[in-house]
Specification:
Structural class: alpha+beta
Radius of gyration: 18 Å
Length: 150
Amino acid sequence: MDRPTLLITAGSFVALGVAVLVARALLQVVGVNGDSMTPTYQDGDQILVLRRGFRRRLRVGAVVVCLPPAGIRITAGDVDAATQLMVKRVAALPSGQVYVLGDAPRHSLDSRAFGALPPDLVRGVVIRRLRAALGSSPGGHDVAPRGQVG
């Protein structure tokens, strides 16, 4: 292999590596557990979340990944859920706060129970569904596996 071809190949690998690192810092794939966002997202769906630079996308109607306020614990049956992250829809932005609701009120622990959230509890904005679940199981809340959204 001649020198120019080798340099182009090496440069391509470096550029690809940098692109992967940037994408991992900005984006995260999150699994949906529970039915609080039915019919928009089903239990088992995988969604793509923008983790950095999402504040300008934070508007009414956006779906976000967020933490509940202090003192609120998300449970799955009688035990704590694997994580305390929730997938919810922004319903209002009153006075710099974020009012979040699940699309399925009967299955959702949301701002109807705990009020508006401070914006620092929002961890990212959902960009799109990547993979739909094969089936849906009843009950629970939408949460992301531990450590998936930072």
